[in-house]
Amino acid sequence: MLKITTLIHAESTTLKLEGRLAGPWVQELEQCWVSTVGMRKRYPLSVDLSAVTYVDSDGKDLLKKLHRQGARLVASGCLTSCIVNEIVHVPRRGERAK
Hints:
By secondary structure, the chain is α/β, with parallel strands linked by helices. The protein has helices spanning about 25-40, 55-70, 80-90, and strands at about 1-10, 15-20, 45-55, 70-75. Helix 1 (about 25-40) links the parallel strand 2 (about 15-20) and strand 3. Helix 1 (about 25-40) runs parallel beside helix 2.
């Protein structure tokens, strides 16, 4: 199960995730992302993974996609920090690896 809470602030929006980013919940997050981006194009968007307990390979692929589209990934703890570090250190399209 995954709980997705959209936190809208004056100049930013955060999708706060709680639980497992796996199975059908990956598609649910993608749909939420698409609708949020459509409404809040001008503002920075973040995905808060601090309360995520598991991410499957499809979930990791989606997080990579969201990062490439400009999402800021927020993590705490070993699991999510490791996943975010792995994603953030992959060069975005047009960038060269360090």
